[in-house]
Each structure stands twice: as structure tokens, then as C-alpha cells.
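Deliverable D4.2, example record:
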Amino acid sequence: METISRVKKVGGSLVVRIPKDLAKEENIREGQIVKIEIKKVPVSGFGILKGIGPFTAEDELDTHE
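Output generated by the structure prediction step:
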């Protein structure tokens, strides 16, 4: 099974949480050794500027250098 999790800092270490449903499905218990494959999730800019409408004719640049 695959999941996406956020890395948190706890003390001087970085921690990745395993969701309860995934741990149950994979029968993972505290103290077990597991292999983790790291793949960074690409950051999307979609939705960053909520509330800004589409460009209008007034937004268009009239002059060029």
C-alpha cells in the first residue's frame, strides 16, 4: 500500500507518521523495522491565489521597452 505523509520535526529528529489504517492493513507494530522509500511530492501552485479573478483588458501591459 502507498500513502503520502508530512515530515515533522520532533526534538532533533525528523518523523514520518504511518496512518493507523495502513499500519493495521500491513500489520505493522511498534518496534518493527520497516523499509521506507522516499519520493518527494511535487508542489503545485494551484489554488495559491484564491479570490483573484481572471485577467481583464485593464491588466494587459500597454507599452514595451
